[in-house]
Amino acid sequence: MAGCVAGIKDSFIMTSQLHIKYPVLNRLKDKVVQEKINNIIHSAVFKLRDENASALKKHQKDYSYYVKSDVSFDRKDILSIKFEECLSIPFYAHPFNAVYTVTVNANDGSLYKLKDLFVPGVSWEAALNGILKKDIDALAKKTGIPLLEVFKSIDKEQGFYLSKGGIVVYWQEARYFPRYLGPLEITVKYSGIRDVLKKELKL
Known about the structure:
By secondary structure, this protein is an alpha+beta fold. It has helices spanning 31-45, 47-51, 124-143, and strands at 8-14, 18-25, 64-75, 78-88, 96-105, 159-162, 166-171, 184-189. A five-stranded mixed β-sheet has the order 1-2-3-4-5. A hairpin with a 2-residue loop joins strand 3 and strand 4.
């Protein structure tokens, strides 16, 4: 993608317990912003582990933590990163799995929420809900797998990230479909919601 964020490189943490790959910015002109963004990324990398700190109290030396990252949208003013994280703890029936994402303004280091992508005052939630319900119901019909919960609306703090073709809205595993299917991701094409997107973002 033309005009990408300057100086993104892969960084690795590899030990007997940690198997982590994540991006680091190292050539932004504004070093304060660069540090701010790198701190946000580092926090996201360890989010699943930190959220399950209580479960790790007796397993500090024998858990395993895996993180895979993907820069899904890379433009000089916007960076969107997806993290797939897995925490394995002995004697637990199954590992903890989660998707976390970061979408950040590369000019000032501010984080985007989903609402920040849309024109204030327009009914963007209704536009998204209509598309998402149609796609989720179609997926249930195609697979023959009943929904665990009927989709009604996006969450207040809805998980999302940007891709080249659209906004990817996601939910953690076992929200709408059984756990074995993993997280649910639905791509809402930019072309289908052009009227409610902020034009200045040029998505």
